Amino acid sequence: TTISLIESAHNDSKTASGYYTDPFLYKQKKKTKKYSTLFFFCFVIRPPPISTLSSSSAASDVYKRQIPLIVGGTGFYIQSLLYDIDFTKEDGDQEYRKQLEEKAKREGNDSLYEMLKQVDPKSIEKIHKNNVKRVIRALEFYKLNGYPISEHNEKEAAKTSPYNFAYFVLNHKRDILYDRINRRVDIMAEQGLIDEVKRLKEEGYEKTMVSMQGIGYRQVFEYLEGNLSLEDTIEQIKKDTRHFAKRQLTWFGREREVCMVDKSQFGSEDEILTYMLTILKEKGIYDGSVKELL
How far is residue 32's CA from residue 10's CA, in Å, rounded to a whole number? Predict the structure, then answer.
């Protein structure tokens, strides 16, 4: 059923990670205007394989046959899909970036923060001085484009969606969610997380690499370097994952037109589905035919 896709995000650790970032469906909107409705589910699980919707003809075919159901994706993925917000990364100025990184190491984070304050005071309100990566990104953007990244973000955020969509975010009681996160980390450890990172380290991967900054990898690197015990490593992964989940819920809660669905407020999955179908009917997305929707 539709709900079983969402339920897997809470019960199956294997589907709780991994994202596609290519806004494949949205890119086809100009060629598929008459198929403009979008039925959107969101939580942190893997979305449908992009290969099934990667071409113009395939996307059009999906619109013709049924209401699109999109499951999962990062916050940026969703924004790009619904509002055509441009998150394309430029090649950047590697030399300037390196200069800023060295300046931060030599003079401290405050030095870069002060530079950003001079050219983009609005970004200061949203970027913490210790988030050096984002501070450097904002400074680099200004150098490359001649205007603040905050101005760019405001323009992108003002875009409206061409779709009539429903945007659901599934949530649960905090203690239940955290318990499942803790169990998921234990399963990761049991299934070889430590050995995986050890192998990557032996192959030349370094903890400073962006790919090694993900939750789980960076903590295990600390363990392999003797900075943490195994027990403390596992606990740190659990703690950081819980914090990440909290930030995600905060992010989605601030998104436009989001419908938060608290599972603890429903007696069964059927009740959740009935509630969602009611929302879809109110929006004019769904006409009441379960056969057509599922």
Answer: 34
Enter the tokens of residue 161.
């969606």
* pLDDT score at 77: 78
Integer Cα distance of 92 and 278 in angstroms: 47
H helix or E strand, kind and range, residue 198: helix 193-202
Please give the DSSP secondary-structure letter assigned to residue 36: -
The answer to whether 67 and 192 have CB atoms below 8 angstroms apart is no
List phi, psi (to 5°) of 169: -125, 115
CB-neighbour burial class of residue 135 (10 A; exposed 0-12, middle 13-18, buried 19+): buried
- pLDDT tens column, 78-115: 888 788 776 655 567 788 999 999 999 999 999 999 99
| pLDDT of 190 higher than 50 | yes
> For the whole prediction, is pTM greater than 0.85?
no
| 254's tokens | 């601030």
Rounded to whole angstroms, how far apart are CA atoms 201 and 173? 38
Residue type, 51: S
Find out whether 24 and 53 touch, Cβ atoms under 8 Å: yes
- 3-state secondary structure (DSSP) of residue 53: coil
pLDDT value of residue 203: 95
- Give 75-81 contacts, CB < 8 A, sequence gap 24+: 75/248, 75/251, 75/252, 75/255, 76/21, 77/19, 77/20, 77/21, 77/23, 77/47, 78/40, 78/42, 78/167, 78/255, 79/255, 80/23, 80/26, 81/23, 81/25, 81/26
Q: Residue 45 in contact with residue 8, Cβ under 8 Å?
A: yes
What's the order of all strands across the beta sheet hosting 37-42? 69-71, 37-42, 164-171, 258-262
Contact 204, 225 (CB under 8 A): no
CA distance 80 to 282: 25
Which amino acid, one-letter code, is at 248? Q
